[in-house]
Each structure stands twice: as structure tokens, then as C-alpha cells.
Design a protein that fits this description.
By secondary structure, the chain is an alpha+beta fold. It has a single domain, classed as paralog of FGE (formylglycine-generating enzyme) (Alpha-Beta Complex), CATH 3.90.1580.10. It is 23% helix and 14% strand. It is built from nine helices and twelve strands. The strands form four sheets. Strands 1-2-5-12 form a four-stranded antiparallel sheet. A four-stranded mixed sheet has the order 10-9-8-11, with helices on one face. It has a two-stranded antiparallel ribbon with strand order 3-4. The chain is globular, with a radius of gyration of 19 Å. The protein starts with 32 loop residues before the first helix and ends with a strand.
């Protein structure tokens, strides 16, 4: 994405805690500050209100710790192999859930970012997650795993999906977006059979889901499946992020992706499973969803089966990637890219109606 795109401007995350820290690549959505001002009609909380809300939330998170995926909520994941691709899918029952973030959660996200990347974070990145609202969805199925390279190749072999253009697949570094350098073999680094299929455009993702007899999930469906019905911060609960739960940019590792510098085979972090049974809903690959991007959508969104179908320059991406800091791995974090953008951070999973 070039600098003329005014919807998103990712920032590099070469966080250096010492002279031996190496630079790394991170997906960072930056949203226009005026989008939030439009949402709130010019009103924002005071700094004192931010701080009190954040302290309250931090106390709640510290007290609750890990809330085991589903058992505490009386949820036993219901899985079935469905669709042309035979992928395992999780059943998401009809009902309501809390979508978006409270003021305290927004401030907590900002503080998480500051902890990982001091001085590089901006509150408007997180303000687009509010207001929080109870949203009701019909039942649906969603893939347990991100679509893998092997499954995507099956779609290519069937003539239903285009080959990926690895040579033009983009990376982000301190100089901005760039294509891979001649000595970088992106396909070798990200193309193993069980790694998530990245370097796909929004159209590529949609083509695959149609071939499989499915569709991309809506943004609200994705969040419910990842977050569960109880408003958890992360798919696994409220405990913090570590490399056993999510492939991400861990500040104590010199390379992003928990020291590996790439995605992991899907399902490599089973303790990060969501209450409904999703794997890698935080980290590994961020994921395309159906909706057009609009930072102010939550202010006007319906509360029953919402989807933003008003055309804009970008489509929504959720979940954070192998190069994201922990604040982006929260289930409410929102971002987006132009639909023709393809990079080493973004993949997808499919959904299906009953």
C-alpha cells in the first residue's frame, strides 16, 4: 500500500532495547484521528478518566488470569468437517455477544502497545474499537484453522483460485512497504504445506471460500468466534500473551514470530484456542473478513447481523499476525488493507451458513 492510501499507514516496529536488538517487521494499522472524533461527535474522555478506567481493567485482568477456553462458560466446541475442502469447522450458535471495546479496554490496549513499543503508539489506533455494544448473530460455521498453503494450492489446481504472486508479495520495514529483495525467498519462508496461506488478496480469499462452498466471515462473526460470548480480551481468556498461546512479536525475541521470523504451521499454539474451538485467532496470520473498512461503522452499526457493505477503499483485517505486538492480538483489534494488497502477514479462514 502506498502513502496515498489514507485509510491505513502501518508503522515499522524496530524496537531496540539494546544495541543488539535487530529490526523487525510488524503490521500496524494507523487510523485517522478524525474518524474517532466523528464517531463521538467531538467528545472524548479526559486523561484522568482514561487512567482510572485503565487501572480498573488492569486489576480485573490480573485477578481473573486464564479463564480456560470454553469450560468455564459451559461451552464444548462442536466441530465438523464441511465444504469442498473438508476443513474442520466450529459451530457458533445463534445469540448475542459483546462486540468492541470499552473506554478502559481502549486505554489498556494503548498501554499494552506502549509497553512493547515505547513512544511509537497512538490512541486513535484503538479508539475505532468503541463503542462496545451487544450484537446478535444467527448461527454459523467457521474454519477451526486458517486456510493452509496446501488447501489453497488444491483450489489453484482445480482452476478456481489464481496462483499467488510471491515475487510481488509485500513486507514492511523501517523504509515502508516493499516487495521481497532478490536474495529473499518468500515462498520458501512462508510456503510450507501447513503454514497459513499468506500473500493473498481479498479477492483470492473470496475465490477460495467460494470454491470450498463457503464465504468469508463478517467482521462481527469473526469477533464472536474469536472472543466467545463473555467479552474476553483474547481468544483464550484474559491472561496475557505468550508464545505458547500465539505466534507474535515477542519483545524478548530478536526476531518477530516468537523468534522464528515467519508464520507457524496452523494449530501450533493449542493453548491459544478460543472458547468455540478456533486456533490461531490471535497471531500467526491476520485474516481478511467480508466487511468494508470504516472507522466509524460501530457508531451506526445495526445490532443484528451487522455487516458494513458500504464501499470504501479497504477491507477489514482481524486477528494480528506473527509480527504484531500483543495489543493487536486482542479479539477487538481492527485494521484493514486495500483489497488488492497482498503481504506476508495476512491470510484468511472461511465461514459457512447452516
Amino acid at each position: 500500500m502506498n502513502s496515498s492510501d489514507n485509510t491505513i499507514s502501518p508503522l515499522a516496529t524496530s524496537r531496540r532495547s539494546s544495541s543488539t536488538r535487530t529490526s523487525s517487521l510488524t503490521l500496524r494499522p494507523v487510523w485517522r484521528a478524525w474518524s474517532w472524533l466523528d464517531v463521538t461527535r467531538g467528545t472524548t474522555p479526559s486523561r484522568a478518566a482514561w487512567s482510572v478506567a485503565a487501572l480498573l481493567l488492569i486489576s480485573v485482568v490480573a485477578c481473573h488470569g486464564l479463564r480456560g477456553p470454553g469450560a468455564e462458560l459451559g461451552i464444548s466446541p462442536e466441530l465438523d468437517e464441511r465444504g469442498q475442502d473438508g476443513a474442520s469447522m466450529a459451530w457458533i450458535p445463534a445469540g448475542s455477544f459483546l462486540r468492541g471495546s470499552t473506554w478502559g479496554e481502549v486505554e489498556y490496549a494503548f498501554l499494552m502497545c506502549e509497553d512493547a513499543r515505547p513512544g511509537q503508539c497512538r490512541r486513535p489506533w484503538y479508539l475505532i474499537e468503541a463503542p462496545q455494544a451487544e450484537v446478535t448473530l444467527d448461527a454459523f460455521w467457521i474454519d477451526v484453522h486458517e486456510v493452509t498453503n496446501a488447501r489453497y494450492q488444491a483450489c489453484v489446481d482445480a482452476g478456481a483460485c489464481p496462483e499467488r504472486e510471491w515475487a510481488s508479495c509485500q513486507l514492511w520495514d523501517t523504509g515502508g512497504w516493499r516487495v521481497s529483495l532478490p536474495d529473499e525467498d518468500v515462498a520458501a519462508r512462508f510456503g510450507a504445506a501447513r503454514q497459513p496461506a499468506v500473500c493473498v488478496t481479498w479477492d483470492n480469499a473470496g475465490a477460495y471460500c467460494r470454491w470450498a462452498g463457503k464465504r468469508l466471515p463478517t467482521e462481527a462473526e469473526w469477533e464472536k468466534a474469536a472472543r466467545g460470548p463473555a467479552g474476553w480480551l483474547f481468544p483464550w481468556g484474559n491472561a496475557g500473551v505468550d508464545c505458547d498461546r500465539a505466534r507474535h512479536h515477542s519483545p524478548d525475541q530478536e526476531e518477530p514470530g516468537c523468534g522464528v521470523g515467519a508464520t507457524a504451521p496452523v494449530g501450533s499454539a493449542p493453548t491459544g484456542m478460543s472458547a468455540y474451538g478456533l486456533m490461531d485467532a490471535a497471531g500467526n496470520a491476520s485474516e481478511w473478513v467480508q466487511d468494508f473498512e470504516d472507522p466509524g461503522f460501530y457508531a451506526r452499526s445495526p445490532t443484528s447481523n451487522p455487516i458494513n457493505d458500504q464501499e470504501s477503499a479497504a477491507r477489514v483485517v482481524r486477528g494480528g499476525s506473527w509480527a504484531s505486538d500483543p495489543s493487536v492480538l486482542r479479539s477487538t483489534s481492527r485494521g484493514g488493507f486495500a483489497p488488492n494488497h497482498h503481504n506476508v502477514y495476512t491470510g484468511f479462514r472461511c465461514a459457512a451458513d447452516p
